[in-house]
């Protein structure tokens, strides 16, 4: 999924690339929980929700590079630690920050994602 996400973003993301690149990796009833304090915060449900989430991310970030990833657990919920380098679209500010995600996989597809950010206030501030 991360390789498909990179390919999707490299092709221009929402409005430029087809979400069909990502859809096979997500269960039809997938749920993504983002911290409410983020510009793209809230709960995103299903493929339509995921597509809208990627639009919101694209509006927020000029670039969002997953510099380093470490899979800390691959059974039960998958746990992935990602170091991100991003540039906010509105301000041009650049940030580096970690995200820890728990990902539930059912029948080979992502069913639930919960990302945990180290400092959501700093991220939100950089994007204003």
From TrEMBL:
InterPro entries: NTF2-like_dom_sf, SnoaL-like. It holds the Pfam family SnoaL_2. Residues 16-112 form the SnoaL-like domain. This is Nuclear transport factor 2 family protein. It comes from Phytoactinopolyspora alkaliphila. The lineage of its organism: Bacteria, Bacillati, Actinomycetota, Actinomycetes, Jiangellales.
């Amino acid at each position: 999924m991360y390789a498909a996400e990179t390919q999707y973003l490299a092709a221009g993301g929402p409005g430029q690339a087809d979400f069909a690149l990502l859809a096979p990796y997500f269960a039809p009833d997938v749920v993504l929980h983002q911290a409410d304090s983020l510009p793209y915060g809230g709960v995103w449900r299903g493929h339509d929700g995921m597509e809208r989430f990627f639009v919101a991310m694209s509006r927020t970030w000029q670039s969002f590079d997953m510099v380093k990833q470490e899979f800390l657990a691959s059974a039960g919920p998958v746990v992935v630690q990602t170091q991100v380098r991003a540039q906010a679209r509105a301000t041009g500010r650049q940030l580096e920050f970690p995200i820890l995600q728990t990902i539930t996989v059912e029948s080979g597809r992502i069913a639930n994602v919960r990302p945990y950010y180290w400092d959501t206030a700093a991220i939100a501030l950089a994007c204003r």
